[in-house]
Amino acid sequence: MNTKAIISILLVIYSVEAPPPRRQGCLKPLRGINLRVRADNMIDLTYDYDERAMHWPGNPAGFQLNEVIKGFIGSFYVTYNMMTQPEHIGTHVDAPSHFAEKGLTMEQVDLFNLIGNGVLLNMKNKEGFDSDSFITVDDFLEWERENKGRIRSGSIVLLYTGHGDVYYDRSKYVGTNITGEEGISHFRYPGLHPSAAEWLVTKRCIAAVGIDTASLDQAKSTTFGAHTTLSAHNVPIFENIANLDKLATSRRKFNIIALPQKIAGGSGAPVRVVAVMN
């Protein structure tokens, strides 16, 4: 057999057995979202705003609701309160300006980044995953293999670590009961690895990312690489997302509606997040 014939056979074998090259580009976004909202197909992913709402140490105060009027005025009853709270409290959005000098402020964030096809990455029971872990590119590739499809452009990706299950137990949620700036060094919770954040925005063109912890970056981070990467691409971040256990249990496809307070010039805002099941 001559050399040319041998090369031809090898080329045929390679073309049959070699795996196809991994497509890294972004898939086109879904053409549209058909929301059929019913009482039995919605999951509220938002915590109540009250004195228990999680806020970052160093804020002068957390959530405060002060009564102004409560009672009858003549023949009618009325209640009126004054409310104060940080931008970044409870279930909230980080606007890109939070970590990017020229990033969009809260009122500039596009609605297309806040309403879209939902993707849930369930890390809670993954072997070896704990409060000191990172969510990596390999975790997303594993999700794609299991779901027989790639994350589409414009998706809103939610990260379920299990920490949201203990939101009202501060010692378990952030790893310590120490408050104030001193408490930050004692925080423990997992987060998104900066390289995975880069992959999500450049290879999957996602619209937003959310997590059921106090911060998207792992607690020990000092550079906040996931935040800075996403903010540089004007991708908003949802933190302290509630009820992802219910979303995981449902095992249904879903869409996300997230409507934050439209604070002009804001670096973030409280947000009402709802999953609408397909």
Topology:
Layout lengths: L2 H15 L24 E3 L19 E10 L2 E9 L7 E3 L20 E8 L11 E2 L1 H11 L8 E5 L9 H4 L7 H4 L6 E2 L1 H9 L5 E4 L13 H8 L4 E3 L4 H7 L3 E7 L7 E10 L1
Parallel strand pairs: 5-7, 6-8, 7-9, 9-10
Antiparallel strand pairs: 1-12, 2-3, 4-10, 4-12, 5-11, 11-12
Count of strand segments: 12
Q: Write down the overall geometry.
A: globular
Proportion of helical residues: 10-25%
Q: Indicate the proportion of strand residues.
A: 15-25%
Give the helices and strands as they follow along the chain.
HEEEEEEHEHHEHEHEHEE
Separate helix tally: 7
User: What number is the mean pLDDT?
Assistant: 90
Which descriptors apply to this entry?
278 residues; alpha/beta; 7-stranded mixed barrel; two-stranded antiparallel ribbon; 24% strand; globular
